[in-house]
Fold this sequence. Notes:
- The protein has helices spanning 2-33, 67-83, 109-119, 125-128, 137-149, 155-164, 194-204, 207-215, 259-266, 306-315, and strands spanning 55-58, 88-94, 96-103, 165-170, 180-182, 274-277, 280-283, 286-289, 292-300, 336-347, 350-353, 357-358.
- By secondary structure, it is an alpha+beta fold.
- The longest helix is centred in the first third of the chain and has 32 residues, at 2-33.
- The strands form 4 sheets. Strands 8, 9, 10, 11 and 12 form a 5-stranded antiparallel beta sheet that branches.
- The model is unreliable at 45-52 and 323-331 (pLDDT under 50).
- Strand 2 and strand 3 form a beta hairpin.
- It is built from 10 helices and 12 strands.
- It has one domain (55-232, 250-358).
Amino acid sequence: xxxxxxxWGAAYREAVFRLADHAQSAAEQIRDAAPAPVATxxxxxxxxASRAEGYALPLTGLDGANPLAFLAALGTLRLAERAxxxxxxxxxxxxxxxxxxxxxxxxxxxxLIANLLAQAVRTRRCVTFAQDVKIxxxxxxxxxxxxxxxxxxxxxxxxxxxxxxxxLVTIQGGPNAGxxxxxxxxxxxxxxxxxxxxxxxxxxxxxxxxxxxxxxxxTYDDPLEGLSLRWDPxxxxxxxxxxxxxxxxxxxxxxxxxxxxxxxxxEALPLFPCFARGSRLVTTGFLVLDRRPFFTWPIWExxxxxxxxxxxxxxxxxPRDGSEVRHIKTPDQIGVTVCYQCEKVSNSDYSNFTxxxxx
Length: 359
């Protein structure tokens, strides 16, 4: 059974078998204990209503093969779930993998984006507790205690903290010794600070920027300097591959980003918590092979809610040989159609994603 169906498939079938056995036993006990039937007439019954699919809104600007677009779709789902409980997300093949938001009610794109921004205000404690997530472990522990006290009123604070770092894993040497080792999504360097930069992106991103990111073809005409999380493979601008000399390019930093996508992608971080594994920090979605971190993400066709997406992201491990996903023998059993993978590479002091490949 394990060789044929895998660990997950075998456990799934065993659970179905056991539940069927319990149901049959219960039916037999009820039948034996029931009184003799009495004559009754036919009673008409309305047909059971099928589950409503809700209002489907394709996010035509996002391509599931792009890690930034995938994260932006998850950020949109998380914020939409807060505004419209019961919101789900699926992916549809339309030349590229396009995310489709399933809302419990019909709503216009303008109203949706307005409510997304209302759920992601810049004054939230989860983005203002510090300027960076690479801080002294003692300070991070203090923030954890604060979040624990507010867990019933501000769960989002705890979710962001778990996604940023873990105080059990600290940097051992250099000027940052004793500070928390940040999530694998930490691509910035130098004087840049992740939370400070996220707030600057949130300040600069308008409703128009989010509309372009979600519903229009990406033209990369938004400001780039200091307003990018570097999660788009196109952010990898090596000196030798640029058309102009950066030191003499007057247009440097004035365009090249999709500001709305960066704004929404940051909101997906709570879906990728970090954990301490020995002396290393492990980030959900990443696998480190020969000191090379790889990010792997699934594309699914059924409409899933936020909890289902969170579960699959945590269960789906990156493939070691590029041929199969570990722990899930046949991903199609749970609706995963394809997985994409890209490598996190170093570019001087910064990091970038390589273009993705389908697995």
